[in-house]
Amino acid sequence: MTEFIRTEIRGRIGFITLTRPKALNALSHDMIRAMASALDAWRDDPQVLGVVLQGEGEKGLCAGGDIRYFHEAVSVGRTDIMDFFTDEYRLNYAIATYPKPYIALMDGVVMGGGMGISQGAALRIVTEATRMAMPETAIGLFPDVGGGYFLANLAGHLGEYLGTTGIVFGAVDACEIGLADVVLPRALLPVLCDRLANGAWDDSDAVLDAARTFVRESLPPAGLAPGKLAPLRDVIDSHFGLADMPTILKSLQREARCEYSGWAQETEDLLRAKRSPLMVCVTLEQVRRARHMSLADDLREEWLMMRSVFNLDGRSGAEGVEGIRAMVVDKDHKPRWQHERIEDVKPADIARFFDGERRGADHPLRDLGQ
């Protein structure tokens, strides 16, 4: 138990509850360490056969990391901000490789860091209230917490589209594209938790089977919004599979005179007016590189990229600090990006995010996957 995290064992299930609803359960460093400590303790505890992650409050599981902390830390010259990412990425990897069923109740807002503590789950449950996204390019960041990896593993070029635009989507889309497994009415989440906590389970497989059976036998949520991504799959692939962002934008301009004119215009306007030009280009490269990486390699790459996004390498400009200032701290919504337009971003600007030092024996995540 620590501030904003409640961990408890009920029956043979370990429950992790994020208890910071006023901040949409945004992850602080202490919360990350508390989650990691609980998972480590339960890993070899014969009493615990499975783990359930949930968030307190009506608004959502987790809206991401504590980005105000990032801004404050970098603004005063603190370099220990990278300890946050080291511990967060270790937690993401621990969840993805956990030897017992880890069940994520992805209700309400699940974005950024909330995706990082959910996507590695053995069972990802969404509800009619789920609002999911990797919206980092809006604040001068990139989809980290393993985002490169799980976006890269989506079909076609959905990963490039979702990562660069950061669009929000719901439960049906999440299941159809592979970022969630099943939909359950949010009113039944407490019922599921009680069922798991009170069951007489013989082993971990029985816990996971029971959770899956409960969802399968429950009625779907009423009034569930239909998915919007499936009908766009071909057109997304045709544009976001192109060579680079300037070429993608030109293609969207041509599409604006064709069948999907509304979507194309909205997408171009979003990328141009509401996203960091630099980080849109960096994210496109990130997702494509991650297609050839393991999760461990992707997290190591993202750690190096994060040093660049906050200019801790002294070479890249603090795009993330400016984005968080404009969108979250001062809320003037007028970020002064390093580049005025996507077309102004040079290949060398992108490359700086992928040629960082500490790739070898002294990388703090060097042991992941070993």
Automatic annotation (TrEMBL):
A Pfam family the protein falls into: ECH_2
A GO biological process held by the record: L-valine catabolic process
Sorted UniProt keywords: Hydrolase
Domain Enoyl-CoA hydratase/isomerase: from-to ranges: 13-354
Superkingdom of the organism of origin: Bacteria
Cell cycle listed as a keyword: no
Gene Ontology molecular functions: 3-hydroxyisobutyryl-CoA hydrolase activity
Tagged with keyword RNA-binding: no
Protein name, as recorded: 3-hydroxyisobutyryl-CoA hydrolase
Taxonomic placement: Bacteria, Pseudomonadati, Pseudomonadota, Betaproteobacteria, Burkholderiales
